[in-house]
Amino acid sequence: MLFDVLPQTAYIFILIFSRIGTLFMLMPGFSERAVSVRMRLILAVMVTLVFFPMVSSNYGSIPVTLVGIVAAMVKEMLIAAVLGLSVKFIMAALQIASTIIAFQLGLSFAMGPDPSTGQQTVQLNTFMSTLAITLIFVTNLHYLMIAAMYDSYEMFPVNQMLPLGDIAEYATQILGDAFIVGLKLSSPFIAYGLVFYFGLGLLSRLMPQLQVFFIAMPANILVGTVLFMMLLVSMMSWYMGHIEAVLGRFIVR
């Protein structure tokens, strides 16, 4: 009897781990390069053990072929990718916003490695990304991520086909929302840059012998930095609310 139960238990555990493990590889905060792969693996296994008694009844018997087992695993990872990439795209909106802000403030030349991806990016993006991840854990939004993991079993039942058309439409929508969020976050600095550089252009026409742009660069950085400090709290509060709204789409109320 024990040998009859073990294969079924192992099959269900692997499928749950496929979904949870993929989510931990994509979710912000858990998927950062600073978090070791071993730590992510331990967290994924622990959450899988917690979810096992709650969601194991949703799974059926073991498929008779290896292709059926692989197809079930791919389906679980695809469901996790929909949830994980949704939040990943919203985090990418922060990179868009920080790049625009750094360009408007004259700080686009200050480059450094991104702790999330390891690629070169503006230092302002490193600061805002680190702050966003910190706020996710401070405001307990990581609990909302775990709740979305659990409710994904109700939103995407195991024994039903995936709505690929709806998933493709949602992916297009969330990608467009990322650009909109990035523009909204940087919109005060776009307006500031237009006014500031319009004034410099007008001044350069009135005093063509003066190197206006060279002299005004320190003032641009100073005023822009002060404006950034004044708006940072409002920007990040609104941004955290948007992340909560995205995760709320996967919460079954």
Quick rundown:
The chain has 253 residues and is mainly α.
What can you see in these coordinates?
By secondary structure, the protein is mainly alpha-helical. It has one domain (2-248). Helices cover 77% and strands 2% of the residues. The protein contains seven helices and two strands, in the order αααββαααα. It has helices spanning 2-26, 37-55, 66-105, 123-138, 141-155, 164-206, 212-248, and strands at residues 111-113, 120-122. It has a two-stranded antiparallel sheet with strand order 1-2. A hairpin with a 6-residue loop joins β1 (111-113) and β2 (120-122). The longest helix is centred in the C-terminal third of the chain and has 43 residues, at 164-206. The protein is elongated.
Number of domains: 1
Count of discrete alpha- or pi-helical segments spanning 4 or more residues: 7
Ranges where pLDDT stays below 50 over 5 or more residues in a row are none
Q: What is the CA-CA span between the terminal residues?
A: 39 Å
- What fraction of residues sit in β-strands? under 5%
N-to-C order of helices and strands? HHHEEHHHH
Largest sheet: 2 strands, antiparallel
Family: Belongs to the FliR/MopE/SpaR family.
Transmembrane segments: 6-27, 39-56, 92-111, 131-150, 189-207, 213-233
InterPro entries: FliR, T3SS_IM_R
Keywords: Bacterial flagellum, Cell membrane, Cell projection, Cilium, Flagellum, Membrane, Transmembrane, Transmembrane helix
